[in-house]
Structures are given as C-alpha cells and as structure tokens.
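Table S7 (text form). Paired inputs.
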Amino acid sequence: MLALIQRVRRASVTIDGAVVGAIGPGLLVLVCAEQGDTQLQADKLLAKILKLRIFSDTQGKMNRCVQELDGAGQHGGLLVVSQFTLAADTSGGNRPSFTQAAAPDLGRALYDYLVQQARGAHSEVATGVFAADMQVELVNDGPVTIPMRVAPAGQAA
C-alpha cells in the first residue's frame, strides 16, 4: 500500500460543494492500494502512520506522533482520502499508467478496512468518499510531506 502523509494545520474534503470530512491539526493521509495488497499491508501502514514522529516536541524537534498530540490534549486528527493516482508509473512516457493500482473492488475493501482500523485506534478520523470526485483543501504545516510504502510479502518496499 502507498500513502502520502502531510502534516497539516487543517484539511478538508468537499464533494459537490459539501464538506464531507475535515480536521484541524493532524495528518492528511492520501492512500492507495496496489495489486497484491491485503489487510496485512493496511495494518502495517496504519501502524507506521500512527507512530510517525513528525510533530515537534517542546524543543522543536520532530519527536512526537499524531497519537501523542491527541493524548496531550491537543488535536491530532486523521483525514484519510483514497487516491489511486499514487500508483502512477510515468516511466513509459508522459501519460501515467495505473496498472499497479488495485482493482476498484479490492481498493475499496482495503480503504474501508484501513478507515475502520484507524477509527478503532485513534479518536478523530475523517474521510473522503472512495472513487468520488473530491476537492481536497489543506494547509501543509512545515511543509512536511512523507511518502510511505508497505509492500506485499515478497516485494521490496
């Protein structure tokens, strides 16, 4: 599974003029399932996201994770948005290929599973809508943007 993690001051998802998901400070997580991914990759990805130390401690060092912000009484939300274009392969020319992205049924199942697991592990989880035409707005904090990949068994990460 692929993810692009952005530390944000705020982020939201709008569909047809209506906000369907929004957070204050926290992480915007753009996520893509690839062929061969299973719930195991989703679990590993979520564990890495929740423990990713990209928030400043009292000395200004990136030493805290989104869950530590939440536990400290500060807002540490997750906005999880499906984005199959993370699997783009541009090595063959100017038009991206998305052949490594999971088929829509598998992609939806793994996205829904990841969101369900996130809601069980974290106090504030907002989402977009799988396969919808979404407008994502964010104020990147830093900016801090981290690409992340958890490969299926037998593949290099």
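Next pair, protein 2 of 2.
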Amino acid sequence: MQRRDFVKLVFGAFTLAFILPKNALAAIWNKAAFETTQLNEAEKNLEVNGEKLSQDILITVPDKAENGAIVQVEVKSNILNTETISIFVEKNPTPLIAHFKFSNGAEPFVVTRIKMAETSDVKVVVKAGNEYFMNAKNVVVLENGCG
C-alpha cells in the first residue's frame, strides 16, 4: 500500500467515524424547540397537542431545591407504548430541558439533573401513539441556578 492510499483510507475512516454520526444527530435535534423562550412554543415545536393529565407519569423531584443549579429529576412513565418523555420548566430562560425517545421495549424511565432559574413547575409530557399525557410537580428554588 502506498503512503497516499493509506492517507486517503485513514481520512475516509475518520470521516465515517466522526463526521457522519454528527450529521445524523443534527437531523434528530429539534433546535427550534430547545431554543424557544416560551413553553407553548416549545410544545408546538415538538408537535404536542391536547395533552391529558395522567397520574401514570411519576415525577420525583425535591419539594425544595437548595440550589437551582443542580436539581435531580426522576421520571417514570407507566403509560403503555411510551415513545417520548419531555421535561419542561416554564420559568427557565428556555423551558424545554430534555426530550428522550424510547425504542420498542425500552423502559420509559429517566434520571437527570437540571438547572432551574426560579420556583416553577417541572412539567413532564409523554407521547404514546398519537396521544399526549402530562403531569407536573412544583419545586421551590431557594438559590438561583440559571443565569
């Protein structure tokens, strides 16, 4: 193998390994939903409509967060065929915090840490089939976490 062919091969492998996955991730990233500053606009960009209140969405967050910079959120959906779980905080600079997609058979359960600017509801929206369900829990933030 000649040096020039080897360099082409290494460059091609690098392109496949690093650049193409980035482009694939960019295709599923909903930039508009994550960058909007209004809760209803974020939901609209995720095509959420007609959500129903459901106690089958279990949200575990502290009642009071000592520091809004680190608030642990645990969400479990007991709704059959859960496809997505979205976490919103209305009073944050950008209300859409996270959007998780689940493949067939995956357990719809997430644990993450979020930032909260001030006291607000943590709202969770679950998509199952063509239906949307929601639940929310209020968190009192004692020290500001978002700038």
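The beta strands are 52-53, 57-60, 64-65, 71-77, 82-89, 96-101, 109-114, 120-128, 131-141.
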